[in-house]
Amino acid sequence: MQFTSSEACLTYYLRYAFEKGFGVMKNGGASKDCKERCIFTCARGGKPRGKSKKAITERNKLVVKIGCKAALYVKLNSSTNKWVITEFIDKHNHELHPEYVHKIRCFRHLKEWARKQLELNDSVGVSMVANINAVTQMGGGPKHCGFTERDCRNYLAKLRRGNFQKGDAAALMQQFREKILKDPNFYYSYKFDTNNRLETVFWADSVSRSWYRYFGDVVTFDATYIVNRYDLPVAPFVGVNHHGFSIIFGCAMMTHESAESYKWIINCFLECMGGKAPESIITDQSLSMKKAIDATLPDTTHRHCTWHILNKLNPKIGNNEDAASDIKNVIYKSKTEDEFEMRWQSTIRQHSLEDNEWLKEMFDIRKSWIPAYLHDHFWTGMISTQRSESINSFLDNYVNSKTTLRDFGKCFDRALARLRKREYDEDYECKRGTSRLISKYNFIEQQFVEVYTREMFVKFQHEIKALIDSRFTMCECLGNRKVYNVDDGDGEFKVDFNCDDQTFECECHLFETKGLVCRYALLVYKQECVTHIPFAVICCHHMS
């Protein structure tokens, strides 16, 4: 096979790489200007950059270069003035991903028409999100347009360096009916009032339902978001996926925030999810919501949002900063229920707050919001409805006070698509390379890097880094168990280590609440010369 130029050789190899699913880089070899010879290598060829001290403290970066030898060698035949292939190495030392090929750098190019459209939209005040979405759809969607959101954002950044209308509810219902034709597992349910007006509606598509099967152990539910023409509360069911990203399991709108409305919504949610109730749910202190949850989710642990409660603390105690600081210390630093109750009463007496009715009420419901009573449950790191509020803030990019019901469904779909694109992108990043190991105990790191997503592995590495400040203060042997006292400078925690199955219980409860092996347990594993972490302490929620 002969080619008229080295660029023709590259075009040929790129076409092949596109079909197989790998990137290509141009390497001149002995003749870097490719006048006589040229090497086109797999983009994962070569060696990664050396690890520096700065790299350890910065956000973990992907290791993309792994020494892949796949390449195409070509040279110029001087007698025919044609380029010929001298060697073709087809074997890669990594998986190929044709499904992600549109994201690989060498296949991306922001075409002239796309640049002009981005400029035009930007000049008339179209938001960045709306602008990028429009141009992407004009190009055939994310997989076919030939460029990514990052390409558009980079180009724009460079460029700038400068009550229901008639038929509105019916239109939303029609949208839902049309969705079922495209997505047979799309679920929706609605209820009309006595005047035949839409009162409550709930919906979830097939992707949200499948997400719930995997990540529905903890849910936050918040109905404080009101951004539409009719001031209807929008209440999304929100969770956290294996990347640590917020995801939406379903959404509801209602005209009345009553216990009956919440019961109806939760029952729809349960029916949609095949009767599977979440293990835990986080809400604000809405009494009507509590009544509904008690009636519909009797076996689910109900937690009140800690942030909302503590946000009221200062005004409720006369803006006494010293008392507020001491109370927060008691809330967050108490390891056990008994310790909390003892310290709470002592602090209340110290600041003469025994007659404060609000503090009495908060103490009476302590089991629903104080960490010491809830640290035996998995919360994916959540103690508040912050995830729901972040979704609400995210939706602000798509809806506003003028959005009608007719438009809300479409706007919500666009927001949902963007959330899912973020997960899709992170799935690709996890497949594109592996995170760099940072410690000399890399046999432990290696076990987790192979099973955890990139984001969760970075959080685990935070505990690895903290080992340097941790030390033993005592060890006690109790039959097949050893109880270690470990101090990291911020406090001392007991680690109960089982010598038979190599599992542990730690007073910090990081594993129970967040699914991460803590620095204290890691120090014990190091001391006990454990080289293989038991599967029981690998959190399935964080697995890729």
Short recap of the structure:
With 544 residues, this protein is α+β, with helices and mostly antiparallel strands. It is built from 21 helices and 18 strands.
> What coarse outline follows from CA principal-axis ratios?
globular
Mean pLDDT: 88
* Radius of gyration, CA atoms, in whole angstroms: 28 Å
- List how many beta strands DSSP finds: 18
Low-confidence stretches: 53-59
Please state how the strands of the largest beta sheet are arranged side by side. 7-8-11-10-9-12-13
Main beta sheet strand tally, sense and closure: 7 strands, mixed
Q: Which structural class fits the helix and strand makeup?
A: alpha+beta
Q: CATH homologous superfamily of the largest domain, by name?
A: Ribonuclease H-like superfamily/Ribonuclease H
Question: What is the tally of helical segments?
Answer: 21
The proportion of residues forming helix, as a percent range, comes to 40-55%
- Structural domains: how many: 5
> CATH first level of the largest domain: which class?
Alpha Beta
What fraction of the residues are assigned to beta strands by DSSP? 15-25%
Q: What is the terminal-to-terminal distance?
A: 43 Å
The name CATH uses for the topology of the largest domain is Nucleotidyltransferase, domain 5
CATH architecture of the largest domain: 2-Layer Sandwich
Please tell me about this protein's structure.
The chain is built from 21 helices and 18 strands. Residues 53-59 have low confidence and may be disordered. The protein has helices at residues 6-20, 53-57, 112-123, 128-138, 149-160, 168-182, 206-215, 259-272, 287-296, 306-310, 313-316, 321-333, 337-350, 357-364, 371-374, 386-395, 405-432, 442-449, 454-466, 510-514, 519-527; strands at residues 2-3, 24-27, 37-42, 62-63, 71-77, 82-89, 187-192, 198-204, 218-221, 234-240, 246-254, 280-283, 301-304, 434-435, 471-478, 481-487, 492-498, 504-506. The strands form 4 sheets. A 7-stranded mixed β-sheet has the order 7-8-11-10-9-12-13, sandwiched between helices. Strands 1-6-5-3-2 form a 5-stranded antiparallel β-sheet, with helices on one face. Helix content is 41%, strand content 18%. It folds into 5 domains: 2-98, no CATH class; 112-160; 168-305 and 378-426, Nucleotidyltransferase, domain 5 (2-Layer Sandwich), CATH 3.30.420.10; 309-368, no CATH class; 434-542, no CATH class. The chain is α+β, with helices and mostly antiparallel strands and 544 residues long. It comes from Rhynchospora breviuscula. This is Protein FAR1-RELATED SEQUENCE.
